[in-house]
Amino acid sequence: MTQQDLQSRKAGHIALVGAGPGARDLLTLRALERIQCADVLLYDRLVDPEIMELASPRAERIYVGKEVGRCAWPQGRIDRLIVAKARLGLRVVRLKSGDPSIFGRACEEIAAARASGIEVEIVPGITAASAAAASICHPLTERGETDTFAVTTGTCRPGDANPDRARLAHPGTSMAFYMAVERAAVVRDDLIGAGAPAECPVEIVASVSTPQERHVSTTLGALAETIAAEGIRNPAILFVRYPKSLARAIRGISAVA
Is the preceding peptide bond at 124 cis, omega within 30 degrees of 0? Predict the structure, then answer.
């Protein structure tokens, strides 16, 4: 062990590690190394148990699961815990499903670590949108059809306004909606109200890269009804595409009419 390693060990270290969408063979090599070397792992309900098996038997495992509407572990409590463990000189891994930088509350944990003078890093992971697109073998962008890809959310912090979805309702845009199952009707109405056609194709991928994965195809106009009829539940990604060819076809129909 080098002198730098000894100093880092003494001061403690926090790694915000992307666990990917589910399957452990989608972990990066860096994520695997951090997990195997961790003294403490904090994980949530979306982290696959097989990933936890990669950690040292001596590592402390702490479940800090959250669900929409129910939260025994508020963010402030998690922040305090990872800092307290790192102050003991431990290597702390905060395992997050997907990628820590995408709707992963990484900003709060980074701020807490820096405020305490503790070294912190982000280890990127495969986000659910990438894994879902790969699973259904449908690229996130398509030459000549979609040249803009947007990652957005259906559920904001209580009291915050909805994202400005009018910016997304343009030909050539492919959209990945996270945490949007229960807000599907609002997403639909916002996009159609901003000019996106009801005929826009939608792919719904639930529980991606797990044995429970499901894939349902529909249209923007029928999105909410399809989710209800199929019993889709979170976690799920909603892919909404507004292809340029669809815009051209609609313009052609309008010109004829």
Answer: no
